[in-house]
């Protein structure tokens, strides 16, 4: 309570005094306190701004919210609180993760859901083709259509990683990325959709194609 009262006094210029009230703090004290508040606000905005809206709970997948007083992230959905982690420390961890992805771009793959759907469809067609071939008088046109469609699915399955636009964009960004001194904002936006943070402050990133690294 006393701490909050002091904060209010330092934040209000009227306590420097005027024609009605005697000063409680000097103008120099007020200006110094204001300078520190502005510096803190600027640091908070600069460090967290690139990814603050993208923070995702490692337990339930919902959005995380920042609590600057305790330097923790918490989830309103499942109630998870992370261990304390400084803004700069988290920013550096994300930057290191991005640099690792850039150096190991071979790990970037197409969405598994797309590949699984193609694989299931191809397997189903293979069974149908096998059944049709066992018939005494199979429908030749229908059989040929199924064989061609299965070959098409097999081709899509093998080349899905190259054909997926999001995956191609990520690989392109990795190839063109140059190391920077600050947070790689542009590269981050091209590559990452969410930053997954766990209770122990371990992080993973969900890429723009849905892959988690």
* Structural class by sheet pairing and helices: mainly alpha
Shape, per Cα inertia axes: elongated
- How much strand content do the residues show? 5-15%
Q: What does the oligomeric state look like here?
A: single chain
Helix content: 40-55%
What is the CA–CA distance across the termini?
Answer: 45 Å
Count of distinct strands: 5
Radius of gyration: 28 Å
Biggest β-sheet: strands ordered side by side in the sheet: 1-4-5
pLDDT < 50 runs, ≥5 residues: none
The mean pLDDT is 81
Query: What letter string, H or E per element, gives the SSE order?
Result: HHEEEHHHHHEE
Described by strand count, sense and barrel closure, the largest sheet is: 3 strands, mixed
Number of helices: 7
Draw up the topology in text.
Blueprint (H helix, E strand, L loop, with lengths): L1 H10 L15 H22 L6 E3 L6 E4 L4 E4 L11 H17 L8 H22 L6 H24 L1 H12 L8 H7 E6 L5 E5 L6
Parallel strand pairs: 1-4
Antiparallel strand pairs: 2-3, 4-5
Describe this structure in words.
The protein has 213 residues and is mainly alpha-helical. It contains 7 helices and 5 strands; from the N terminus they run ααβββαααααββ. The chain has a 3-stranded mixed beta sheet with strand order 1-4-5. Strands 2-3 form a two-stranded antiparallel ribbon. Helix 4 (112-133) runs antiparallel to helix 5. It is elongated and about 105 Å long. The two termini are 45 Å apart. The mean pLDDT is 81.
């Amino acid at each position: 309570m006393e701490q909050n009262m002091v904060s209010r006094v330092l934040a209000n210029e009227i306590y420097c005094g005027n024609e009605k009230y005697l000063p409680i703090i000097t103008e120099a004290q007020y200006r110094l306190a204001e300078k520190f508040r502005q510096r803190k606000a600027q640091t908070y905005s600069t460090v967290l701004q690139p990814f603050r809206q993208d923070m995702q709970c490692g337990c339930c997948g919902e959005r995380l919210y920042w609590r600057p007083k305790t330097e923790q992230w918490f989830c309103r959905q499942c109630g998870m609180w992370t261990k304390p982690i400084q803004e700069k420390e988290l920013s550096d961890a994300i930057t290191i993760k991005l640099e690792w992805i850039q150096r190991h771009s071979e790990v970037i793959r197409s969405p598994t859901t797309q590949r699984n759907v193609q694989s299931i469809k191809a397997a189903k067609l293979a069974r149908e083709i096998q059944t049709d071939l066992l018939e005494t008088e199979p429908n030749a046109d229908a059989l040929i259509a199924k064989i061609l469609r299965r070959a098409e699915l097999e081709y899509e399955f093998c080349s899905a990683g190259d054909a997926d636009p999001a995956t191609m964009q990520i690989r392109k960004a990795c190839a063109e990325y140059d190391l920077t001194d600050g947070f790689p904002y542009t590269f981050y936006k091209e590559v990452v959709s969410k930053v997954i943070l766990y209770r122990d402050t371990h992080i993973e990133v969900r890429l723009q194609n849905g892959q988690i690294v």
